[in-house]
Amino acid sequence: MNLSRQLEPRYMEIAHILRSELNGFSVGDYLPSEARLAERFGVNRHTLRRAVDELVREGRVLRHKGRGTCVLAQHIVYPVDASSAYSKTLTSMGFRSEAVLLGRQHRLATPDETRGLALADDSRVIEIKTLRLLDDQPISLITHCFSDRYEQVLHGYEGGSLRLHMEKNEIRLKRVSTLIGARVPTPVEAIQLLMPRHAPVLTIRTISADPAGTAVELSRSVTRADRFTYHITSGEQHEQ
Question: In which region does residue 117 sit, left (phi positive, over 0), alpha (psi from -120 to 50) or beta (all else)?
């Protein structure tokens, strides 16, 4: 006899069943009404609502007032290693990935960029901002910074994979440093990522170098934490 299962609250049992059934729904589908689910499980609406609350808390579903409970896209486990490239890795996982150019500018390097890219004091950098879409949904905002000696290489970039753009110009990059953090988004970031202002985002600071070990790019990404989980690996499974 499984005593731990026997002692599990009824709403948790229902949550477990509903969780296991979510794979049968598409993103954006609505669950049956709470009244129908309560009838199916033979419980009152309060118990059923507690079960659904568990799925809401886990970020699996979202209640829309007056419409019902909507199934959300699930976490993407993204492998981070020396050779992982955002667009190619996500495409290989079956997602339709797109990078939209939001803007570019020339400016003085910050102290962090000066250190990270081994630049001389008062050096200038090229900053490129992109919005990453997965299956047409915003997932990440990325700020890419390069020394201005790459101005000619980056001049023709109009969107898409920056890594691929660099490769076409015979510059192959590998990730040499990754720093991961978390915070809440700014109001502008929340609007751009179509997410609640209070929900967390993951912040990723990455330095990528050429085969000689020279730092070429320092990027900072802001990614929806309800969609992404980063898996740090030591191998080079994603060599392009």
Answer: alpha
Return the ∠ at Cα 139 (arms to 134 and 143), rounded to 5°. 115
pTM of the model: 0.68
Of all residues in the chain, the percent with pLDDT exceeding 90 is: 62
> Is residue 71 helix, strand or coil?
strand
CA 2 – CA 17 distance, rounded (Å): 17
Measured between its terminal Cα atoms, the distance across the chain in Å is 52
84, pLDDT greater than 80: no
Hunting for tokens 């990325």 — which residue is that? 142
Give the contacts of 155 (CB within 8 A, at least 6 positions apart): none
* pLDDT surpassing 60 at residue 236: no
pLDDT tens track for 60-69: 888 888 889 9
Quick one: DSSP state of residue 235? S
Question: Beta strand pairing status for 228-232 and 76-80?
Answer: parallel
> Cα separation of 163 and 91, whole Å?
14
